[in-house]
Amino acid sequence: MHKIVVTGGAGFIGSAVVRRLVGAGYDVTNIDKLTYSGNLASLREVDGAPNYRFQRVDICDQPAVARIIADARPHAIMHLAAESHVDRSIDGPAEFLETNVVGTFHLLNAALAYWRGLDEPHRSAFRFHHISTDEVFGALGFEDGLFSEQTRYDPSSPYSASKASADHFVRAWNRTYGLPVVLSNCSNNYGPFHFPEKLIPLTILNAMEGRELPVYGRGENVRDWLHVEDHARALELIVTRGDVGESYNVGGRCERSNLSVVETICDVLDARRPRPGGSHRDLIRFVTDRPGHDLRYAIDCTKIERELGWTPAVSFEQGIAATVDWFLDNEWWWRPIREESYAGQRLGTG
Ligand code: NAD
């Protein structure tokens, strides 16, 4: 398996996947519409590589996607293109249905038509990999254990409902039409090239600029954090070695409350760039909670550990320190986003 079409490869996780695959010598075609969160600057490292091509296309444009797939003749499609921010899904859910549900449907159709035209052994080896989220499982209580691959779907937000729907369509294309699919549901990612609307990059940039650090509710909501490069490594294993029809939970075994994440960032910045007159922690402000805010997500990743030999390699403490350093060193990447695209204002109050 060496030719791969990636959708959403200009986004946060997609660009980490593209950088990894191109670096490892795969032939990669990246299909991305370049919405507000898509950014070709995240792919500067692979730009011009002979084994990398970019196509600016909306996944809802089925004929265009079908042409690209026919030209690329991939062994696998890794589907990451999505609207990905819960707060934006509260303010404007229509876009989430359009890309995450309808777009996935169009991509599945294009993939199915291509797959049906393949000869053996290419046909049996082909994989359609849907990259999904742990948010499809809904909320856990503090004492509720972990999400496994068997946990019932119970999404809370328009975002997680759209991803859950896409997961169901992907499984249906396997059971009904035989398309060889594999799925993965991952916990919260963080790392370099993260669009600064999500908790970690937003907090880093606000703290660097001495602005207030909003924390939803009392900051007690818990997420299971995973470094994006650990996720990209898991995705390469799943697409190349995962079993057809299976799903794999991917997580960092690293539960942290939102408040403790924000405090950790403040402590790293206090060490790197002390704030005159006090700690960065003094900037923390509790604000009205997100509507429908899931209390806790936590992943049981025993299956991928046991079957594919994957474990997270980056500890949260190392990963957060490296991420803060990356934002300190890479203003060229985030400054244009802050000034032209998203300045950090509150979203998703409903
Ligand atoms: P992102 O918002 O950073 O990137 C999404 C990318 O998809 C962007 O490059 C955007 O331009 C592209 N895109 C959006 N609509 C498109 C369309 N109609 N056609 C083509 N391209 C389109 O998101 P991300 O955080 O990198 O997430 C990538 C995937 O991983 C998503 O499917 C998301 O649900 C899933 N996921 C994310 C996380 C996380 O913590 N960020 C965790 C688990 C799963």
Structure, explained:
By secondary structure, this protein is of the alpha/beta class. The chain has a domain at 3-190 and 225-253: Rossmann fold (3-Layer(aba) Sandwich). 42% of the residues lie in helices and 16% in strands. The protein is built from twelve helices and twelve strands. The protein has helices at residues 12-23, 62-72, 86-91, 94-116, 122-125, 158-177, 199-208, 228-241, 258-272, 302-308, 316-329, 331-341, and strands at 3-7, 27-32, 52-56, 76-79, 127-133, 181-186, 188-190, 213-216, 222-227, 247-250, 255-257, 284-287. It has a seven-stranded parallel sheet, with helices on both faces. A three-stranded mixed sheet has the order 7-9-11. Helix 1 links the parallel strand 1 and strand 2. It is globular. The mean pLDDT is 97. Bound molecules: nicotinamide-adenine-dinucleotide (NAD). Nicotinamide-adenine-dinucleotide (NAD) is lined by residues 7-8, 10-14, 32-35, 37-38, 58-60, 80-84, 99, 103, 131-133, 163, 186, 188-189, 195.
Give helix % range. Answer: 40-55%
**N-to-C CA distance:** 45 Å
Main sheet strand line-up: 3-2-1-4-5-6-10
Tell me the number of strands.
12
Output the CATH homologous superfamily of the domain at 3-190 and 225-253.
NAD(P)-binding Rossmann-like Domain
The topology string of helices and strands comes to EHEEHEHHHEHEEHEEHEEHEHHH
Strand content: 15-25%
- Strand-pairing-aware structural class: alpha/beta
Ligands present: nicotinamide-adenine-dinucleotide
Radius of gyration: 20 Å
Low-confidence stretches: none
User: How many helices does DSSP assign?
Assistant: 12
Fold-level CATH name of the domain at 3-190 and 225-253: Rossmann fold
User: Quick one: biggest sheet?
Assistant: 7 strands, parallel
Q: What is the top-level CATH class of the domain at 3-190 and 225-253? A: Alpha Beta
- The coarse silhouette is globular
Please tell me the overall pLDDT.
97
Please name the CATH architecture of the domain at 3-190 and 225-253. Answer: 3-Layer(aba) Sandwich
